Amino acid sequence: MAYDSNNIFAKILRGEAPCIKVYEDGDTLAFMDLMPQADGHVLIVPKEPAETLLELSEEGAMAAIRTTRRIAIAVKKALGVEGLHVAQLNGAAAGQTVPHIHFHVIPHATGTVLRM
Ligand code: 5GP
């Protein structure tokens, strides 16, 4: 399917919608999830216009996983949590609700269940 640049993450990337930014570099933007599944839930969004991981370039994927790892390390250090989910959904059938590729970093204590 063709990429739809009207999605909310595209608007955030263009500065047309607000976000609580936690990290930015030339290839990625990371910000707090509006409806977090746990305190400290961060989204990592590649700047490249791609709906899913399947359309993202290899360079974009490398940049996204590098930023995701950095965010995971920072969140674990800041919150002192025991574990983290790193999640990435592709397509509505898989539960993706925003059609711009993104990774979730979700802090978890032992025994918590991921709602996804
Ligand atoms: P998905 O289900 O597509 O993997 O995840 C989309 C995520 O984006 C959800 O966790 C949802 O809470 C978050 N989200 C949706 N709209 C906004 C928004 O306008 N701002 C922010 N910061 N997060 C959003």
From TrEMBL:
Any idea which residues are catalytic in this one?
Answer: H102
Where is the motif named Histidine triad motif mapped on this chain? Answer: 100-104
User: Can you give the residue ranges of the HIT domain?
Assistant: 8-115
GO molecular function annotations of the record: catalytic activity
**Any coiled-coil regions, as ranges:** none
Any single biological process term in GO? nucleotide metabolic process
The protein depicted here goes by the name Histidine triad (HIT) family protein
Tell me which species this is from. Answer: Pusillimonas noertemannii
Give the stretch of the parent protein shown, with its full length. Answer: 1 to 116 of 141
